């Protein structure tokens, strides 16, 4: 039985890690913290749940639509909202406000399109694998393995492809990168698309595991951010480490203090982490 | 080396300045509007309900405006400060009605202390960090309201808040509305004055050119914390009035979704003046809360409108009205 | 406490690239030092280190005998003022308001003072017009002080920055390319202002890449090239130096 708990914890950790990876990729590209990634995850999950469960369409349609939706939302955030905002003001609150507003728009949009009732997705595989005196759902294994694969792909992309390697330069100083002749826009778009795919995948993985509502994005966004803060930004694997660590903290606090204390523990965690690593929490400089 | 060259060092920025209307006119006009509004609401129960909501949200919007417009700091803990004001009143009222007056300093001090703490912890971090820290605090407070049944009454809240009496006269809903409108007028006017005063100029300079302000010797961290604390104090006043007006408090009224409604009000109304926040509150309350039909699409519309304003018309509604005014009165007022 | 500035052994590298190799530089009170060097030589980096906006990898900055390790605003309160290579002027505010920030920073030194001043601002609706601000602007040939900074020229922005810096009544002033983009009247104004504060005992560090402009104004010159101070001497000696001429012309 303990293994089930461990597995659940790892899954949650991987889930948080994926969202954190979404933040990470976007951060590398634009030096902005994109709170809307939680909304991409939620919307993608709801899309796949809606199409597959409520309308009986095959999984492949659901998965494709979910990924597409997430990519489109990420693209709008970048090209339609963040870049125009960053171009027009050096002041910080503008982009933050715009991203929060867009996040809200996605929330309300999801509520309108998919309704206010919770939606549960269909598992990617119905198979049950016997284990010990119980069983494990294949979907959970697929989600976990899939997450690890995604991280591996992301790490490889950042290290071995042209665009991936140039991403950091673009995020740190786009003007200089432009002056050096780098195709800034394309590099950014590739990172944005990657963010969309990562978040879409996370949504697909989580949809059967938890009933999603149009307000689910907020806890996703927060946990993803915390996972990033804990793990750091040293490499593409750091968000995963942060996610797993966060899930562990969550589990431990739930067992020792009880479920209702979760929000207090997380708040304390945030304050402690922010206080004792005031500079260089991010290896990448966030626009200040 | 040509000082007469009109080439400026930045790309075309949107015009930031609403025409400067002399403060006396603004103050008189808004006072008159406030009185007219009060008379319009009168004894009509439905209008009173809306007016009470408007008052609470207008004050919340003003509370958000102070750190945002003056210092460029986005704090998202407003549902928490709102709750602190309201629940302090509720809890004290249930001990003894006379203690309600004590709620004023207590709630204000607690809110300011928390805002200062959150601001202090994130003082050298980015605005995103402040947003997250304050959001998490708001969530934690709402959770606490629901779970800490002994203190907060849990999900059923606390009721039985009596009407206040002043000089033996009981202050009813109409009285509270009048009082609330007067408070809004006072705060908005004070903020407008602060904005153009020495401290306000320093804050606005810091908001736009932080590095330069620091290099001048401005204690930017202290100034920022102060702005955050002031905003929190105003929001707690909103909470106090809210509790007195409804005579009960429920956790539902203090969920984080409140923050997202309030967030848009200063933007929509216009950031050049605190009255923009009041106007924004009026619009949002009238449309989302006044008309059930607009429940879903209404909120969505506001999100979209906010984006439109941010991207295309950053001066908000007041700025747009000001543009129209400028065309009618081309001479404009001097700064 | 004087504004005597002394940098010793300043080193700075970015991502493996050494920008400053071990800078020793000193400016005495009542002296104007002109620091020249080509674009990208590291002048602004050095200024950022002195001002506190960046940290040196090695070396120390000493002001008036005290080693500096604190924040830019703390250094400003010790009497340091500076301008920026790209003018940092609040576009939303008027010229007068921008310059007034320098004055306000002098006054708002503690929480108590900020709160008191905020109350005064709320209670009295008239913005205090400091004659000092108007004077400083007039001396720099800045006019139309009520214009929003959004509408002024690049050269005028430079003048605003200089005026703002002077408002702080500093003991050490560091100017990063204050003359570029500024008209003749402005150049004359800045020159006069600098000479005036120099005569009052202020130390002035002037960075520019236009040697001709500096020679009539400064007392000493230093050349920063390849991350090192190559020459550091009085004007005549610098101009006569073969090394100076070849290095400068070589990189200009």
Concise description?
The complex is a heterotrimer of chains A (288), B (335) and C (252). With 288 residues, chain A is mainly alpha-helical.
Helical percentage of chain C: 40-55%
Strand portion of chain C:
15-25%
Radius of gyration of chain C: 19 Å
Biggest sheet of chain A: strands side by side, in what order? 1-2
State the major sheet of chain C. 6 strands, mixed
| Helix amount of chain A | over 70%
Order of helices and strands of chain C: EEEHEEHEHHHHEHEHEEHH
Structural class of chain A: mainly alpha
List unreliable stretches of 5+ residues of chain C. none
Q: How many helices of chain C does DSSP assign?
A: 10
Tell me the major beta sheet of chain A: 2 strands, antiparallel
**Chain pair sharing the greatest interface:** B-C, 45 and 66 residues
Give the spatial strand order of the biggest sheet of chain C: 6-7-8-3-9-10
Low-confidence stretches of chain A: 278-285
Write the CATH fold name of chain A. Answer: ABC transporter involved in vitamin B12 uptake, BtuC
Query: How far is the N terminus from the C terminus of chain A?
Result: 47 Å
Q: What fraction strand of chain A?
A: under 5%
What is the alpha-carbon Rg of chain A in Å?
19 Å
Which term fits the overall shape of chain A?
globular
């Amino acid at each position: 039985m303990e293994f089930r708990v461990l597995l659940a914890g790892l899954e949650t950790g991987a889930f948080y890690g994926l969202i954190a990876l979404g933040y990470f990729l976007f951060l590398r590209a634009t030096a902005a913290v994109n709170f809307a990634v939680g909304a991409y995850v939620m919307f993608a999950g709801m899309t796949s749940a809606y199409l597959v469960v409520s309308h009986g369409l095959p999984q492949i349609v659901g998965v494709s639509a979910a990924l597409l939706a997430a990519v489109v939302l990420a693209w709008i955030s970048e090209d339609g909202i963040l870049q125009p905002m960053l171009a027009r003001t050096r002041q910080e609150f503008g982009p933050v406000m715009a991203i929060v507003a867009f996040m809200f728009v996605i929330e309300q949009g999801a509520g309108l399109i998919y309704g206010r009732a919770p939606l549960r997705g269909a598992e990617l595989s119905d198979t049950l694998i016997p284990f010990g005196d119980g069983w494990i759902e294949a979907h959970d294994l697929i989600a976990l393995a899939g997450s690890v694969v995604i991280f591996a792909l992301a790490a490889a992309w950042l290290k071995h492809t042209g665009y991936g390697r140039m991403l950091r330069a673009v995020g740190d100083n786009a003007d200089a990168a432009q002056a050096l002749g780098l195709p800034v826009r394309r590099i950014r778009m590739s990172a944005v698309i990657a963010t969309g795919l990562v978040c879409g995948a996370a949504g697909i993985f989580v949809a059967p595991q938890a009933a999603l509502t149009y307000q689910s994005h907020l806890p996703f966004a927060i946990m993803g951010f915390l996972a990033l803060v804990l793990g750091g930004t040293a490499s593409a694997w750091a968000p995963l480490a942060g996610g797993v660590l966060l899930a562990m903290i969550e589990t431990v606090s739930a067992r020792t203090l009880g479920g209702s204390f979760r929000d207090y523990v997380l708040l304390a965690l945030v304050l402690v982490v922010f206080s004792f690593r005031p500079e260089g929490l991010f290896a990448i400089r966030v626009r200040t | 080396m040509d000082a007469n060259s009109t080439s400026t060092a930045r790309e075309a920025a949107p015009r930031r300045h609403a025409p400067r209307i002399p403060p006396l006119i603004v103050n008189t006009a808004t006072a008159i509007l406030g009185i007219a509004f009060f008379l319009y609401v009168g004894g009509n129960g439905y209008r009173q309900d809306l007016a009470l909501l408007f008052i609470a949200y207008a004050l919340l919007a003003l509370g958000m405006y102070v750190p945002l417009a003056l210092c460029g700091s986005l704090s998202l803990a407003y549902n928490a400060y709102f709750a602190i004001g309201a629940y302090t009143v509720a809890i004290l009222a249930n001990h003894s009605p006379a203690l309600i007056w004590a709620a004023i300093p207590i709630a204000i001090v607690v809110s300011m202390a928390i805002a200062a703490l959150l601001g202090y912890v994130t003082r050298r971090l980015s605005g995103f960090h402040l947003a997250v820290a304050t959001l998490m605090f708001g969530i934690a407070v709402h959770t606490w309201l629901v779970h800490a049944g002994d203190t907060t009454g849990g999900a059923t809240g606390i009721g039985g808040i009596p009407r206040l009496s002043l000089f033996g006269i009981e202050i009813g809903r109409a009285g509270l509305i009048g009082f609330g409108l007067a408070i809004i007028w006072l705060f908005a006017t004070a903020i407008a004055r602060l904005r153009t005063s020495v401290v306000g100029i320093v804050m606005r300079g810091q908001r736009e050119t932080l590095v330069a302000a620091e290099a001048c010797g401005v204690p930017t961290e202290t100034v920022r914390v102060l702005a955050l604390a002031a905003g929190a104090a105003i929001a707690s006043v909103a909470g106090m009035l809210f509790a007195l007006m409804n005579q009960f408090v429920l956790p539902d009224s203090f969920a984080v979704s409140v923050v997202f409604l309030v967030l848009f009000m200063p933007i929509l109304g216009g950031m050049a003046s605190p009255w923009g926040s009041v106007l924004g509150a009026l619009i949002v309350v009238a449309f989302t809360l006044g008309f059930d039909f607009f429940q879903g699409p209404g909120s969505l519309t506001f999100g979209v409108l906010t984006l439109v304003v941010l991207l295309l018309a950053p001066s908000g509604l007041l700025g747009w009205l000001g543009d129209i005014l400028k065309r009618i009165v081309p001479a404009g007022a001097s700064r | 406490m004087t504004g005597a500035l002394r940098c010793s052994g300043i080193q700075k590298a970015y991502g493996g690239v050494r920008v400053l190799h071990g800078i020793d530089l000193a400016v005495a009170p009542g002296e104007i030092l002109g620091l020249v060097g080509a674009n990208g030589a590291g002048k602004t980096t050095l200024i950022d280190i002195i001002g506190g906006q960046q940290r040196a990898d090695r070396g120390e900055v000493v002001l008036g005998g005290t080693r500096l390790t604190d924040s830019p605003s703390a250094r400003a309160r010790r009497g340091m003022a500076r301008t920026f290579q790209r003018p940092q002027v609040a576009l939303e505010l008027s010229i007068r308001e921008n310059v007034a920030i320098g004055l306000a920073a002098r006054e708002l030194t503690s929480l108590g003072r900020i709160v008191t001043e905020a109350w005064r601002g709320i209670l009295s609706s008239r913005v205090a017009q400091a004659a000092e601000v108007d004077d400083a602007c007039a001396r720099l040939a800045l006019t139309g002080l009520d214009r929003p900074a959004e509408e002024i020229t690049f050269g005028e922005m430079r003048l605003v920055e200089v005026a703002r810096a002077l408002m702080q009544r500093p003991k050490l002033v560091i100017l990063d390319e204050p003359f570029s983009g500024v008209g003749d009247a402005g150049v004359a104004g800045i020159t006069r202002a600098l000479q005036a504060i120099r005569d009052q005992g202020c130390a002035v560090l002037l960075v520019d890449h236009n040697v001709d402009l500096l020679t009539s104004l400064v007392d000493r010159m230093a050349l920063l090239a390849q991350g090192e101070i190559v020459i550091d001497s009085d004007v005549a000696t610098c101009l006569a130096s073969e090394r100076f001429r070849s290095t400068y012309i070589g990189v200009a």
